[in-house]
Design goal:
The protein has about 100 residues and is mostly helical. The chain has helices at about 5-30, 35-45, 50-85.
Length: about 100
């Protein structure tokens, strides 16, 4: 089954952005997950327990997850072709009887 890389990357990117936004917000209101935010702050500059950090985290989550998932989906599709796996789908000009 061939993957649609753009749709898959968009879906994962949106979910990742939402989660990266909610983690510092959870830290603001409940004072928990501070260690997780500080670890991710070492990877993503400016990501901390604040509203600004939450917004920045949403952007980081969307962009990084989108890029990585798109690359993995494209690689998966290329490996299917190299492996010689037949993909299901309609071919142009071919009519069913």
């Amino acid at each position: 089954m061939k993957l649609n890389a753009l749709k898959l990357a968009s879906a994962f990117g949106i979910v990742s952005a939402l989660l990266m936004f909610l983690l510092p917000v959870y830290g603001i209101y409940f004072g928990k997950a501070l260690r997780m935010v500080s670890i991710l702050g070492g990877v993503f500059p400016g990501y901390n327990v604040s509203w600004q950090g939450a917004g920045l985290g949403a952007v980081y989550g969307l962009v990084t997850c989108y890029i990585y998932v798109a690359l993995v989906a494209l690689l998966y599709n290329k490996l299917l072709v190299l492996k010689g796996i037949k993909l299901k789908g309609k071919k142009a000009g071919k009519k069913k009887k």
